[in-house]
Amino acid sequence: MRKLGPPWQVAKRGRPPEHQPEEYAEIAIYRKHFNMSLRVAEGDTPFVLCKRVDHSDIWWALQRIPLGYLNRAIELLFELIVELFPPEVVR
Questions:
Q1: Contact call for residues 27 and 48 (beta carbons, < 8 A)
Q2: How far apart, in Å, are the Cα atoms of 19 and each of 8, 25, 35, 90, 91?
Q3: 2, 5, 59, 64: which one has the fewest Cβ atoms less than 10 Å from its Cβ?
Q4: Alpha-carbon Rg of the chain, whole angstroms?
Q5: How far apart are CA 26 and CA 45, in angstroms?
Q6: Closest by alpha carbon to 75, among 22, 25, 41, 33?
Q7: DSSP 3-state assignment of 14?
Q8: Closest to 7 measured CA to CA, from 85, 84, 52, 71
Q9: What is the pLDDT of residues 43-72, one digit of tens each?
Q10: Helix (H), strand (E) at residue 81
Q11: The model's pTM
C-alpha cells in the first residue's frame, strides 16, 4: 500500500469513514490472493487489520477499487514474497 498509495480519495465532507481506503485495499488483496469468499475474508479481518470489517463493506470496497490497482498490488505482493523467500532457498 505504501508504494501505490490509497485506491481512492476520502471525501472531506460528511461522516468520516469507519475504515481507510488502504485498509479496504489490504483486505481486497488478501482476499484475491487466497481466492476466498467475502464471508471468509470477513472472518479473517481481525488477523489482517486487528479489527472486524463486515463482508458487505468489503464488497462495497471491491466495487470501488480499480482493477489495475488491485492487479498491481498483487504483483508487488508476489515480488515481495519472492524477495523474502527466494526460490533457491525453498527447494
A1: yes
A2: 13, 10, 22, 36, 40
A3: 2
A4: 14
A5: 10
A6: 33
A7: coil
A8: 71
A9: 999 988 899 999 999 999 889 999 999 889
A10: helix 67-84
A11: 0.77
